[in-house]
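Re-run requested by the PI after the first attempt was lost when the workstation crashed. Everything re-entered from the original request form. Ligand of interest: zinc ion.
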Amino acid sequence: MTPGRPVPPPLAKPLPDVDTPSNTSADTTGATLAAAYGATSPESGLVPLTVSRRAPKADDIEIAIEFCGLCHSDVHATRGEWGGDTYPLIPGHEIVGRVTRVGSDVDDFTVGERVGVGCMVDSCRECDSCLDGLEQYCENGMVGTYGAKDPRNDGAITQGGYATSIVVDRNYVLRIPESLDPAAAAPLLCAGITTYSPLNHFEVEEGDVVGVVGLGGLGHMAVKIAKAMGAEVKVFTTSERKFAAARELGADDVILSTDPAAMEAANRSIDVIIDTVAAPHDLNPYFHTLRLDGALFQLGLPSEAMPPVNPGALIRRRIAYAGSLIGGIAETQEMLDFCAEHGVVSDVEVVGADQLNDAYDRMVAGDVKYRFVLDVSTLGSPTEKADA
Ligand code: ZN
Ligand code: ZN
């Protein structure tokens, strides 16, 4: 504590008596140090770091993290591929853990409860999007879970879930149903909601036919969620080697997208396509597989230009070409409850801290079925001084 600085007043309501997680330590302001992994530069790879977490304010929840999913965004951000990243940067926005402390105004979450944090930890709460529960489209910019300026916390840069703890405003904390395996549930918080939201927006139901382009972290969730919604699912892939895997996930049909005859056979057979491919690719053959009033949602963000869309293909069938970004907090909770009801989780490979860099290389190579999840108990202990 800085000499001469007054001791902060105690919270109005005493914090519940809980054991401080063994791998965190508190200072006199109530802030804690957590062990973490993150990047110190675009070239550093992931290295052990120590992160300071604020003492819970009145509306805050402190979470001891159990698992954190590894998302492609984490790779881009830590390697500085999107530009504007600040270091040190601790990634991770598929966070699952248990509540260890709550602020004085939090009466709807209890210590010990299993909770989650996804891609955002705040937003302006005043714009039309926020008031409609669409915080991900906040007109003033949502506050990302890592690498974002946090206006309500002195403009500090947020640090993510490759860490033993995190403190988040209760309005951005989700409940993870106890029936879900916590490691396999972590990817629901990004990959799950990213695919659930457009399917939900399109009101997919029994009798609908859903197409899924790409069978990675997002694609495999799209297959499972669309099946759970009662749809028939067709998977498009460029590789015949993925046929069996697609069927194992529940796909009713698999189409080799590089085979013009197979694509022609799928003409006018699909109501909505969830396109998860982040590399540039020609969408026109996919529009040809949509029925009248069909829609294609593009979820992947290619770093280079896409081949042009043929407006005639859209016009002749009143097709909507749309994008979609994660989901709002209420919709994310709805998705988690839906997944618990239908027993939907991600297929995961759990890794320890010492495997993180290898896991990143394997993700880039597409060598994972279908999501890596970090076991946070392998992070070790924080040092005496925070790096971030
Ligand atoms: Zn993500
Ligand atoms: Zn807003």
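Saved to the shared folder this time. The longest strand covers residues 60-69.
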